[in-house]
Amino acid sequence: MKFGGHFLNKKQDQEYYIEKLEKENLELKERIRYYESKFHKRSDCMKPNLIETGKRIKSIRSNLGMTMEQFAILTDSSNTSAVNNWERGYNLPNKTKLKKIAILGNTTTDWIKWGTLEEYITSYLIGIGYELYIKDFPEIPHKVFKDIQEKYSDTFSLDKDYELLDSIIKNIFTKYYSKDFEDYRDIEVKPDLGLTDDNKNIKMIGQRIRKIRKKENITLEEFGKLFSPTADKAVISNWENGKNLPNSERIKKIAEIGGVSELYLMTGVDSSVAESMYFLSEVALDALERLSIEEVNRIIESFAGYLNVISKIDDPDKREISLNAICQLSLLDKMG
Q: Which residues belong to any copy of the HTH cro/C1-type domain (predicted)?
């Protein structure tokens, strides 16, 4: 193929078109981002909480001292049932009626839909996937709000047009608080992370502590209050993220809360498995003496392999594999 006075071989030809396609793809993404920001199309499709919206509409009507019938007339609604449906959170008024309600309440349509800007920030962060994080750290939306108030109050009217602030909310959260969120998220410890065995074990203990807390469906703060003396949520977060370990008394308490053994909490191996290992060593000792060294080694290797797999199953109920089954698997390996 002749191009620009040069002959390109097949590889160069492919690289040229790949580069061209990548460039076009990048330009297309940039155009999509531009139109999304221009027309405020929101990928998260966040919707107002209708129950809370209804409460705000009811508060406007109550503050005006109006009956539902009077309110319906002023908002051009067909009857009182429409007002009743709004206030009970069954549906949202259309844009025109929403504007009329805002005028009557001397407020904005954004406040009716979302509440204060701080409440909107909370809804937005929950809407883009940070619900559990916000539940454990409810002060974060307030911090984001204060940052916006300090930096953008001269640029934006902070009592309306909340959706114009979406990208700013996300940027502030990402810049200042995403690192904390990364620490908070579940950690998957993989063998190739280059961690020492001690570090791996501490992180796995943290995962088991977090699993117990989540199974109880309680926040870091609520979990901390189960201890005496109580533990701050930052302390609990450090345990769960493998930054440090609880003391022996607290390990005992966590095991009690989770209905597991302390051995399981610290090692991931349930006591029934440990007892089975001891039982096997006692019962099988005579039988093992009658086997060749090669056969014994093969059984030990396969048995250890099965126990290793079982020990990595977090759910104790799913690790209740009988000793007899393990022995049968090991014997099959021996015969193979």
A: 57-112, 209-265
Beta-bridge mates of residue 7: 2
CA distance 311 to 215: 20
pLDDT in tens, 93-146: 999 999 999 999 999 998 999 898 899 998 888 888 787 778 778 888 998 999
- Non-local (6+) Cβ contacts of 115 within 8 A are 52, 56
pLDDT per residue as tens digits for the range 187-243: 333 333 334 445 667 888 888 999 999 988 999 989 999 988 888 888 898 888 888
**Given a cut of 90, is residue 88 above it in pLDDT?**
yes
Backbone angles phi, psi at 6, to 5 degrees: -125, 150
Last residue of a domain, one of 150, 184, 218: 184
Quick: pLDDT tens for 22-81: 666 566 555 544 444 444 444 345 788 899 999 999 999 999 999 999 999 999 887 899
Please tell me whether residues 216 and 275 are part of one structural domain: no
45 occurs within a structural domain? no
The domain that holds 67 is classified in CATH as 1.10.260.40
Taken as a whole, the chain contains a residue count of 336
Distance from C-alpha of 247 to C-alpha of 235, rounded to nearest angstrom: 12
Of 212, 232, 267, the position where a domain reaches its end is 267
∠ CA 47-178-233, nearest 5°, is: 95
Sign of CA dihedral 184, 190, 195, 201: positive
Provide the residue range defining the domain that includes 102: 50-114
- C-alpha to C-alpha distance for 211 and 82, rounded to whole angstroms: 46
Q: Is 44 part of a structural domain of the chain?
A: no
Closest CA relative to residue 210, chosen from 191, 179, 233:
233
Same domain, 34 and 55: no
